[in-house]
Amino acid sequence: MIFISGTLSSSFQLMLCCGILYTYAFGAVASYYSIAIACTILPLIFVAVFFRAPETPVYLLKKGLRSQAEMSLKTLRGSQYNTTRELHSLQNELTKQSQGQTSFAKALNRREAKYALIISLGMMVFQQFSGINIVIFYSSKIFDAAGSTLKAELCTILVGLAQVVSTLVSMVLIDRAGRKILLQVSATSMSICLLVLGYYFMKKDRGDDVSSMGMVPVAAVIIYILLFAIGFGPIPWMMSGEVLPADIKGVCTGIAVSLNWTLAFLVTFSFQMLTSTLGNSGTYFLFAGICACGLLFSTFVVIETKGKSLQEIQDELAGKA
């Protein structure tokens, strides 16, 4: 499981991208109210299907329901799967955790816990401050403002499709190439694309003739999306699960996710204010600079977790490896 953890963890980002593409495609041909209804149908389907999902074996073992935990494992692994060894391993891990249980504040005082939390929160910060939600939510306005020759609706569908395709590519690469290199490529490429976008709007806003550059913003946005989705899209989500120690993982993952969506709201909410204050070009140059900082963070702070067990990761964070 260690060697496919990246692929499995990337499925979260893939579902996000599929949802965005679904909304873009439906929004191109339907009214606002129809989109709302269409987006309501999917959660209802999910609720109906999820009733058949098994409870997690770890939760059942915590509750002392060993026979139900065995049934859950067989549902997840297959009816012919021998659950004895895995159940024994899970039970030993839970026993070890309960014996070494300590307060959250004390657990967070360990070097590896602090380092892991810095990585988790830092990744969420740079994911949102890369400007991804601005590009997604305002893509049609970006293309309209740029004077693109393609219809804004078609451009946004291309953006959504680029996200899905590149996330699929990321799922293949992430357990082969590693996390750090994908983050570094992602941050570098996003910074360049935003610089190109900023340069285009700088020329346009000062009255230069940009009629021959109509495809530049479209290409910059699509490449930006492609490279975001192979690195800073999926990897921050999986990093929390990979680097955080087991005894603080639940609380710290909640903190990281809350920070992510809070920043998503703040960045999206402030976009209009930023463009009014800094102009279109200044706004994109600002986010390009933040992506460059994300490159430095990925290079000097984030550790490589590819193919490593949780214990090996914790030893490296603690400075023992």
Descriptive report:
With 321 residues, this protein is mainly alpha-helical. It has a domain of 215 residues: MFS general substrate transporter like domains (Growth Hormone, Chain: A, Up-down Bundle). The longest helix has 55 residues. The radius of gyration is 22 Å and the shape is globular. The mean pLDDT is 83. GO terms for molecular function: transmembrane transporter activity. This is Major facilitator superfamily (MFS) profile domain-containing protein.
Main beta sheet: strand number and arrangement?
A: none
Task: Please name the CATH architecture of the domain at 103-317.
Answer: Up-down Bundle
Rounded to the nearest angstrom, the distance between the terminal CA atoms is: 22 Å
Low-confidence stretches: none
Bulk shape: globular
Separate helix tally: 15
Which secondary-structure class do the elements indicate? Answer: mainly alpha
Relevant CATH superfamily of the domain at 103-317? MFS general substrate transporter like domains
Q: Percent of residues in helical segments?
A: over 70%
**Radius of gyration over alpha carbons?**
22 Å
As for the CATH topology of the domain at 103-317, it is: Growth Hormone, Chain: A
Mean pLDDT: 83
GO molecular function, one term: transmembrane transporter activity
Pfam families: Sugar_tr (PF00083)
Main location: membrane
Keywords: Cell membrane, Membrane, Sugar transport, Transmembrane, Transmembrane helix, Transport
